[in-house]
Here is the input.
Amino acid sequence: MTPSDFRRLALSLPEVEESSHFGAPDFRVGGRIFATLAAEKYGYGNLMLTPEIQAEFVSELPNVFLPVPGGWGRMGATHVRLAAVTEDVLAGALHTAWKLRTNKNANSRPKPKGRKRATDSPQTISPSPPPRS
Here is the structure.
């Protein structure tokens, strides 16, 4: 497979848009990244999986999937060796990453636009009771 194949398969999923993150192509659903071509020059596509699903993929096809080095990999970011993956496997892996992202989007609350400060809203001040004599 090639980066063009990765792009074509990613963009074939519902509501996916191609964007850019630090100059590298990425693929988003609901504005959130589920796959990238950040390591394209090394022959990889990247998928945002869970650590558990990543472990399954790596165990089943170690010549195709490997964790991204460092913290991102420990969180589920996974390289796909484009030269070694078949179209069916890549399509299925992209669908898995897409589905994880859509489920996460559906279960997350919208991010607040900004922090509300106490001075942003009028305050009601209750009068103090009269002193007792």
Remarks:
- The first strand starts at residue 16 and ends at 21.
- The chain has one domain: 3-104.
